[in-house]
Please model this.
Amino acid sequence: MIKVGESLPSATLMEYSEVEGNGCSIGPNAVDVAKASAGKTIALFAVPGAFTPTCSAKHVPGYVEKAEELKAAGVDEIWCVSVNDAFVMGAWARDQKTGTKVRMLADGSGDFSKAAGLTLDLTGRGMGVRSNRYSMLVRDGKVATLNVEAPGKFEVSDAGTMLAQAKG
Model:
């Protein structure tokens, strides 16, 4: 498992964009994790799946709600990562009304999650290998804090915990 002080894994995530701009075309766009996190403070949280109950009812809404407070605490961007494809993440972004507050990033094959050592095997529930539920504060591509949830829990990766860590 990735540790505090280590760099994020080299990986490419995908982001669905509905409008062109800033070098992004409509549709899925590649996001090089190293380049996208360089020189920035990122509040990254990961979920087992888009449209799943806890993720949709609590996890994403919390970060959308606290986006301005996180930015005021020095966070440049908020990333939500899930082992889903970019089209699903785009639809989920519309559903959750994330707008420009939270970047919804697809880890379609789970390469980022595997490289970080943060996978969760939900094969028995018909979901395959997914991402663990966690959050991390990332500064200039390095993990500053890491909050990994126990299976089935939602206690340490919420936006309130991340906000306290960003302020600290």
In short: The radius of gyration is 14 Å. The mean pLDDT is 92. Strands lie at 12-17, 27-32, 41-47, 77-82, 103-106, 119-122, 128-131, 134-139, 142-148.
